[in-house]
Design goal:
2 domains, 11 helices, 16 strands, Alpha-Beta Plaits, alpha/beta, Aminopeptidase
């Protein structure tokens, strides 16, 4: 096994490249499934180091295999995501997004940079280990159906089949240099809820002649919270939130319909689909009781993310070896969704968090126009992913 000091030295030697690559990706973000220039840039960086790779997987995805001395002995998969968000960046930095209305506000530029640099190091060390490393750069994590599902459909988990998969994600609640782990259920399933409440609109001064869809909507949204407060099994985290209500009326005009959009999230699959039935039933019966109708459309999104208990415990032990116990934290359950869940449903997976704050206080949150990272996290993310990968190969290869 190559020493921790040697890995850290190799990462340190790449420090200028890490910043350069991350800043280029940050400055040129692209929306989900449109990551053409991002993929081209990553491909050029791999070509510079003569690392063979395949492009165009599920549109803009990239897959590469780093083969050791005995490639068939074991396969480890590593994953990063490429896409950015439809957010206008407000940071006043030299590497600010040049694509108006698009921003790497979720750290995918960091994820791709760390995986890319890990590939550089692992490729250089390929004569020192047995097995194969499969690196996956996937598109479209931020929108349904999720690039992970499309990459899997395209066969990225075949030929060879990985035994485990690792992924990391930036975390502004942890200081740069620290990481966090949670075995078992970690992140929620994420489904999109679309409801149209229909009534009979007209003059707001004549409510007795109307079937008011605004009133129906207000009552239905309140009633739907019973799904969480009265129907959810004890001990199963559950969230039902509505973030968009569109009623195209006016101060004196009641519209014919109101459109509502929201999200449902939980960490138990059987309950998840039972809840869908309750959402549809409550919406429709509330509307009917007031003389209206409700059309309910639920788009099934990502499953919940499960970190394999044994594998994640092993990876946490490796992180303690590499970074020290003081720099490895235990995480709480998160109700955010993540399409890495598709991979973790197929094989033992570990999805851990990479601290990116400049202090012990949380930095600007994910998905906000002021999100940025302390770039010292790049060396932590690259070094740890490299070490955890080699640790698996040397222990089991």
């Amino acid at each position: 096994m190559i020493s921790i000091d040697e890995i850290k030295k190799r990462v340190s030697d790449l420090s200028n490249d890490l910043v350069r690559i991350r800043r280029h990706l940050h400055q040129h973000p692209e929306l989900s499934f449109h990551e053409h220039e991002t993929a081209a840039f990553i491909s050029r960086e791999l070509d510079k180091r003569s690392i063979d790779h395949e492009r165009g997987i599920a549109g803009t995805g990239i897959v590469l295999h780093i083969k050791g001395k005995n490639p068939k002995s074991k396969t480890i998969a590593l994953r990063a995501d490429l896409d950015a968000l439809p957010i206008s960046e407000m940071n006043n930095v030299a590497y600010k997004s040049v694509n108006q209305g698009v921003m790497h506000a979720c750290g995918h530029d960091v994820h791709s940079t760390c995986l890319l640099a890990s590939c550089f190091i692992l490729h250089d060390l390929r004569d020192m280990f047995n097995g194969t490393i499969k690196a996956i750069f996937q598109p479209g994590e931020e929108v349904l159906p999720g690039g992970a599902s499309l990459m899997i459909e395209a066969g990225v988990l075949e030929n060879p089949v990985p035994e485990t998969i690792l992924g990391q994600h930036v975390y502004p609640n942890l200081k740069a240099g620290k990481v966090g782990f949670r075995p078992g259920k970690y992140m929620a399933s994420a489904d999109e809820i679309y409801i149209t409440f229909k009534g009979k609109g007209g003059h707001a001064a004549e409510p007795y002649n109307l079937i008011d869809p605004v009133l129906i909507t207000a009552q239905a949204i309140t009633s739907l919270q019973q799904v969480v407060s009265r129907k959810a099994p004890i001990g199963v985290p559950t969230v039902l939130s509505f973030g968009k209500i569109a009623a195209d009326g006016a101060t004196n005009v009641v519209p014919n319909e109101v459109r509502v959009e929201g999200t449902f999230r939980t960490l138990e699959e059987k309950w998840r689909f039972e809840a869908h039935q309750w959402i549809e039933r409550i919406a429709q019966e509330t509307a009917k009781s007031l003389g209206g109708e409700a059309e309910v459309n639920i788009k099934v999104g990502y499953p919940f993310l499960h970190n394999d208990e044994e594998f994640t415990s092993e990876m946490k032990s490796g992180a303690i070896e590499f970074l020290g116990a003081d720099n490895v934290a235990d995480l709480d359950v998160r109700m955010g969704g993540e399409d890495f869940a598709y991979y973790s449903q197929k094989m033992p997976g570990c999805f851990y968090r990479l601290g990116v704050s400049s202090s012990d206080e949380p930095s600007a949150g994910l998905h906000t126009p002021y999100f940025d990272v302390d770039e010292r996290a790049l060396t932590t993310g690259t070094g740890l992913m490299t070490y955890l990968t080699l640790r698996q190969l040397f222990q089991n290869g």
